[in-house]
Design a protein that fits this description.
With 270 residues, the chain is mainly α. The chain has one domain. The chain is built from nine helices and two strands, in the order H-H-H-E-H-H-E-H-H-H-H. Strands 1-2 form a two-stranded antiparallel ribbon. The model has no long low-confidence stretch (mean pLDDT 90).
Length: 270
């Protein structure tokens, strides 16, 4: 009863749309399961794990590979376009809706620009991994904005989290960009080998960019205050916890001098 009362104060009523309800459950379950799969060693094939779980060299040769730059653009561009188009489909629906549309669009636009102008690449991405990730990002952007559209006739939640959400979102997107920038500076021109990242929160955790991405989505969920936005933020948390755990394990296996005190994603804890 306490949890139900808390949710009623913090969130809009559950949506009448079966699509949004189903997506709320599906996003949470799929992302959470992906996080546990990462911990178990069953990785999505991108970044350091681009050639993991391919069934050996011969099997890897038979799979469709994308360059890292092309693959990463594939991941983020559809979600960015969905956010941009939403301003035409759902124009002028109030400050909160416009804020959520802007946050979703800005987040994925930032990722596209980072792919083009910031990131440096060393591996590839398998098409089999790019498709589900792209679909997840695109559907999350669409559902996030559509769920907000459905609240237009509903009373505001008793507790307004919109302004704390703006702060969280800005902290998250700036921190995420800064640590992506630090990663890009690890390699000189023409270098492709991995190095132990340093600077910023890299001295405490191996994936601070994931930490700030989690903060981004909690910022969006605070601005939105819909069931879907919360389920997606929590699901994303589980996935990135699992991915960061796997990443730390990878660094420990590759670098004998990797500092043991550096955690995966949450300073001093995990």
């Amino acid at each position: 009863m306490v949890i139900k009362s808390l949710l009623l104060n913090l969130l809009y009523p559950p949506p009448s749309s079966p699509f949004v309800t189903a997506m709320s459950v599906l996003s949470f379950v799929a992302l959470g399961n992906s996080g546990f799969s990462e911990i178990r060693g069953n990785h999505l094939n991108y970044s350091k794990f681009w050639n993991a779980n391919t069934g050996g060299a011969a099997a890897a040769q038979r799979q469709v590979k994308l360059s890292s730059r092309t693959g990463m653009l594939w991941l983020y561009t559809p979600a960015f376009l969905a956010g941009a188009v939403s301003f035409w489909i759902f124009p002028h629906e109030g400050f909160r809706s416009t804020l959520v549309q802007s946050a979703v669009t800005l987040h994925f636009l930032k990722r596209v620009l980072e792919v083009l102008f910031v990131h440096k690449y060393s591996g590839s991405m398998l098409l089999d991994s790019a498709i589900p990730i792209t679909t997840s990002y695109f559907m999350s952007a669409v559902t996030m904005i559509y769920a907000q559209h459905l609240t237009r006739e509903l009373p505001e939640p008793p507790v307004n989290l919109m302004y704390p959400g703006i702060v969280l979102f800005l902290v998250g997107i700036i921190g995420n960009f800064y640590h992506h920038y630090l990663l890009s500076k690890l390699r000189g021109k023409g270098e492709k080998e991995y190095k132990i990242p340093k600077g910023g929160l890299f001295d405490l955790v191996v994936c601070p960019h994931y930490l700030f991405e989690i903060i981004v989505f909690y910022g969006v969920s605070f601005m939105s205050q819909t069931l879907y936005s919360v389920s997606f933020a929590v699901g994303t948390t589980f996935y990135l916890l699992g991915r960061s755990y796997a990443t730390r394990k990878w660094y420990l296996s590759k670098f004998e001098d990797f500092p043991n005190h550096v955690k995966a994603v949450i300073p001093f804890l995990f």
